[in-house]
């Protein structure tokens, strides 16, 4: 575009800006602006027609006032009139004003669109570029509807390919459904061969966006992208002098080409695939070379290309040598002094850890990652370290990683504690060879971070204990010992109440954990808990009556006391009354049937994993955990406030309520 000559300078604008800068107070600035607005308004309304220079000057002043934060409610028509000027500077100011101040609902849109159409159909490339820039800057749906068919024609005609490509990219982002796909899509790919790298850069951005929507239409871009990338990475900096940034040849274009190639699988053609591999190896080699400049811009540009190349290697996941080498080079950044590089290295290695070719290579950096977890100042880097430990975890290192994450959890930032809890719970379950270790881990997890242990976590440990006969006795013994601590988290009381209610009989033979001792231990926590947990403990008490007839009088006295409390929670009082009545009138056989042991849960995906996916924003369809919650909490009668009844228990209790009501009507006694 032509430069503005000295003759085009606007002295009045320069004086006005100088006056504003010299204002000593906000009031003085407002006074000067109001004076100028009144002057401009009088000029626009005057009988004497203004020439193009005056319109341009006053429109510029309005634009400057708007940028200072003041509302502008006039001058729009004068700006539109500037669009028809034959002078570049006047047309430029008109388009600039419209791009900044005119919204898509303006009454002037039709006039603006007509002016844009005239400029797009002109043979003047300057006018055409200004019009395309305006469309891209405004990017409204109305403009997309008006020009979506016209811009592809300009793009392939070659009159203003760079501006047309960027304009089309903008409209595709704002109104993708309005962009027609046709013959031009095949022709736009050939812009990757253009001699002007600015055109190539714009075309790559457009093709990448369109290829994500319709990859088959742009498959031919793969070979052209590889060829262009090869020329960039193998050429000397002097060959691309105009596009070399701090000794790095065309870094932005290289990054965009690598990103385009990530839209497709590895090339099927052996020659093309070999050429792409050669490019990636060259990028990895150059990253290892001594820096050619101490400026941060040099390292930023070089590392940008490197990380995008590694992202492509990870995406293809087909070259074991490249994957291992990428992992080793990322490992060098784990202790880099730049926080951003440490973050990016951890993030990339998380993806590498999921590849069968590079998983073992990632595991070699476990000590460095654990050290980062302990010493890193930046919370975002620590979170990525947690993610990487989670990704590299397998049966060989699960106990070490879980222990380190539990240790870190005690001092972890509050914002990431819940996520760490979920990951520890998933790892403990997934890699548990011995489920006694799993029980110990989850109980320790609740002890360390009980406030961040969601329902899904303690639901899951109950499911696993119920489904595995070999761990039930150990779980009952361990939870009994854990509850003896003076201060226990409420989630631990929930787990203890449920497990002892189901399997307390497995440890009742020891005098130190006799039925009465178990009951007294649970009841000592009763008044410190919330209503739902108290409801769960009442359910455990009625289970005790079935398991241990010798404690029946003691428990009945507690139920009787709770049923007679004033100002008690309605749910708790009703539950206490029903349980007391059930224990009084039901025979031993009926009581055993109603209160029989919880049946095994059906196998399904862990609800904890589902919660972690949801927290991470996964788009995958997640399993519904409501069924698990119903099986633990019980039927709808007590669903509002209940603890963890078994569904079978409450179903049987509901069926038995008819018998209980009949007995009460006939005055049945104990």
Automatic annotation (TrEMBL):
Query: Which SUPFAM superfamilies does the record associate with it?
Result: ARM repeat (SSF48371)
The domain of life for this entry's organism is Eukaryota
Give the start-end ranges of region Disordered.
Answer: 620-641
Key word Protein transport present in the record? yes
- For this UniProt entry, what is the primary localization, expressed as one broad class? Golgi
Q: The Clathrin/coatomer adaptor adaptin-like N-terminal domain covers which part of the protein?
A: 30-582
An annotated GO cellular component of this protein is: AP-1 adaptor complex
Q: Indicate, by first and last residue, each region the UniProt record lists as having compositional bias (Polar residues).
A: 631-641
**Where is this gene product found?**
Golgi apparatus; Membrane, Coated pit
Any coiled-coil ranges, and where? Answer: none
Keywords, sorted A to Z: Coated pit, Cytoplasmic vesicle, Endocytosis, Golgi apparatus, Membrane, Protein transport, Transport
Q: Which gene encodes it?
A: LOC114454457
Organism expressing this protein natively? Gouania willdenowi (Blunt-snouted clingfish)
> What family does the entry list?
Belongs to the adaptor complexes large subunit family.
Q: What is the designated name of this protein? A: AP-1 complex subunit gamma
Q: Name one GO biological process term.
A: intracellular protein transport
Membrane association type: Peripheral membrane protein
- Pfam families attached here? Adaptin_N (PF01602)
Keyword Transmembrane appears in the UniProt entry: no
């Amino acid at each position: 575009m032509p430069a503005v000559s000295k003759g085009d300078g606007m002295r009045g604008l320069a004086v006005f800006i100088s006056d504003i800068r010299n204002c000593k107070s906000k009031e003085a600035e407002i006074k000067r602006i109001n004076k100028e607005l009144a002057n401009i308004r009088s000029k626009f309304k005057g009988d004497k027609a203004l020439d193009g220079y005056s319109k341009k000057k006053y429109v510029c002043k309005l634009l400057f006032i708007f940028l200072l934060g003041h509302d502008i409610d006039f001058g729009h028509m004068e700006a539109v009139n500037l669009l028809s000027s034959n002078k570049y500077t006047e047309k430029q100011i008109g388009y600039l004003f419209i791009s900044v101040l005119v919204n898509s609902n303006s009454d002037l849109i039709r006039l603006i669109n007509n002016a844009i159409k005239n400029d797009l159909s002109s043979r003047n490339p300057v006018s055409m570029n200004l019009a395309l820039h305006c469309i891209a800057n405004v990017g409204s749906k109305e403009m997309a509807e008006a020009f979506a068919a016209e811009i592809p024609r300009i793009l392939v005609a070659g009159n203003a390919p760079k501006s047309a490509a960027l304009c089309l990219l903008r409209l595709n982002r704002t109104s993708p459904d309005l962009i027609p796909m046709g013959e031009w899509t095949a022709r736009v790919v050939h812009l990757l061969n253009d001699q002007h790298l600015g055109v190539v850069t714009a075309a790559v951005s457009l093709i990448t966006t369109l290829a994500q929507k319709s990859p088959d239409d742009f498959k031919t871009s793969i070979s052209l992208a590889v060829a262009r990338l090869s020329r960039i990475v193998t050429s000397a900096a002097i060959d691309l002098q105009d596009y070399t940034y701090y000794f790095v040849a065309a870094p932005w274009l290289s990054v965009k080409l690598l990103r385009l190639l990530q839209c497709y699988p590895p090339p099927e053609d052996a020659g093309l695939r070999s050429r792409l591999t050669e490019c990636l190896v060259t990028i990895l080699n150059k990253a290892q070379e001594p820096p050619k400049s101490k400026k941060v811009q040099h390292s930023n540009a070089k590392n940008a290309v490197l990380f995008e190349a590694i992202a492509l290697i990870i995406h293809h996941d087909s070259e074991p040598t490249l994957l291992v080498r990428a992992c080793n080079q990322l490992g060098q950044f784990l202790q880099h002094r730049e926080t951003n590089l440490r973050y990016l290295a951890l993030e990339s290695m998380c993806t590498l850890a999921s590849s069968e070719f590079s998983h073992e290579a990632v595991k070699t950096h476990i000590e460095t990652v654990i050290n980062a977890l302990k010493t890193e100042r930046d919370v975002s880097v620590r979170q990525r370290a947690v993610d990487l430990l989670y990704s590299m975890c397998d049966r060989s290192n699960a106990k070490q990683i879980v222990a380190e994450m539990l240790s870190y959890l005690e001092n972890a930032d509050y914002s990431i504690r819940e996520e760490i809890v979920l990951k520890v719970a998933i790892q403990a379950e997934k890699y548990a060879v011995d489920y006694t270790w799993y029980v110990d881990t989850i109980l320790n997890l609740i002890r360390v971070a009980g406030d961040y242990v969601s329902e899904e976590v303690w639901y899951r440990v109950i499911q696993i204990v119920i489904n595995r006969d070999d761990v039930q006795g150990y779980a009952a013994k361990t939870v009994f010992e854990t509850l003896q601590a003076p201060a226990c988290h409420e989630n631990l009381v929930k787990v203890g109440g449920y497990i002892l209610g189901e399997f307390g009989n497995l440890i009742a033979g020891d005098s130190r954990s006799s039925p009465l001792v178990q009951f007294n231990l649970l009841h000592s926590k009763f008044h410190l808990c919330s209503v739902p947990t108290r409801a769960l403990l009442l359910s455990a008490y009625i289970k005790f009556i079935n398991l241990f007839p010798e404690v029946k009088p003691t428990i009945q006295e507690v139920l009787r006391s709770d049923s007679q409390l004033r100002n008690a929670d309605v749910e708790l009082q009703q539950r206490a009354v029903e349980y007391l009545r059930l224990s009084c009138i039901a025979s031993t056989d009926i009581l055993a049937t109603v209160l029989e042991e919880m049946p095994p849960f059906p196998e399904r995906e862990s609800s904890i994993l589902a919660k972690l996916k949801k927290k991470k924003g996964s788009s995958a369809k997640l399993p519904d955990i409501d069924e698990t919650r119903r099986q633990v909490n019980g039927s709808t009668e007590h669903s509002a406030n209940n603890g963890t009844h078994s569904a079978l228990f409450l179903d049987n209790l509901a069926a038995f309520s008819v018998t209980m009501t009949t007995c009460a009507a006939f005055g049945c006694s104990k």
